[in-house]
Amino acid sequence: MDAMCVNEEEVKTPGWHNLKYLAFGVLFGIILIKSEVVSWFRIQEMFRLQSFHMFGVIGSAVVVGAISVFLIKKFKIKTINGETILLPNKTFNKGQIYGGLIFGFGWAMTGACPGPLFAQLGYGAAAVSVTILMATVGTWVYGKLREKLPH
Amino acid sequence: MFFKNEAAILLNADLVIELSTYGVNDTSGLIPADLFSWSSLGTLRGFVLMVLGGFLVGFGTRYAGGCTSGHAIMGLSNLQLPSLIATISFMAGGFIMANLILPYILSL
Fold it and tell me: Residue A141, Cα to own-chain centre: how many angstroms?
């Protein structure tokens, strides 16, 4: 059920190699801001079909991602450390529907998904730290209730 | 400076009008200061949006096994049917909340 830690590195590398995650994170944050994905207003437009903007961003990302995945699989491209890239298939469970709807409610309310919440915080909206804290609480509560929830 | 998005985002005029009916007048910036701020946390509306909204994002993401990055971008790129189901659910939830429920929350 968990889509966690499937692509952990097996190869041992010096600690400072983790800076590559920092570099990509910074790049991602900058792109989120420049593409206006982190705008609460853009999200409201998306859900009211008042602008093509968000559909354009998400659509472009999926196209680029699909081409990338295709190339990785076709040419069996490895990581920079030479390890195989695993792209496991996901199995269906009802959590995707129930959890998806619940996430969607929160998405429209906060105007952000997890990534953009951090970008907003970095951009100066300090109060968003409360939203981030509550989202973290949400993941903990899920963990506690998991056994009892329909999947 | 390249890193900042200085230009005001050009928003749909209907949205701006609708938001003003809820007292959300400042549409500059990334998020409405009228709704998301330390002071709005003390209002029922701000509390619901930030506390309950945040909770739903975290709870829902884990329950669904991913969010827009994991399912909508990566999952669809990898042609995963579960991710398509998840993405459709995300959008359904968002559409329902934004069009049917948010008007009430924003009027609190």
Answer: 20
Identify all chain A residues contacting B80, using CB atoms and an 8 Å cutoff: 89-90
Enumerate the domain spans of chain B: 38-106
CA distances from B104 to A45, A55, B47 (A): 18, 26, 14
* Interface A-B: count of C-beta contacts within 8 A: 281
Task: Taking the CA atoms of A52, A53, A56 and A61 in sequence, report the sign of the dihedral they define.
Answer: negative
Which residues pair with residue A84 across a beta bridge? A78
Instruction: Check CB contact under 8 Å for A110 and B49.
Output: yes
Per-residue b or e along B41-65, where b marks 16 or more CB atoms closer than 10 Å to that residue's CB: eeeebbebbbbbbbbbbbbbbbbbb
Task: Decide if B97 touches A, using CB distance below 8 A.
Answer: yes
Task: Let me know: does A40 contact A110? Beta carbons within 8 Å.
Answer: yes
Interchain contact B8–A (C-beta under 8 A) = no
**A78: closest CA of chain B, how far (Å):** 17
Dihedral of the CA atoms B79, B66, A34, B31 (nearest 10)? Answer: 140
CA distance A30 to A96: 29
Q: In chain B, which residues have their Cβ closer than 8 Å to the Cβ of A129?
A: none
| Separation CA B95–CA A109 (nearest Å) | 11
pTM: 0.91
**What is the pLDDT tens value at each position of chain A, 151 positions in all?**
455 656 677 778 888 888 999 999 999 999 999 999 999 999 999 999 999 999 999 999 999 999 999 999 999 999 888 888 888 899 999 999 999 999 999 999 999 999 999 999 988 889 999 999 999 999 999 999 999 999 9
ipTM above 0.90, yes or no: yes
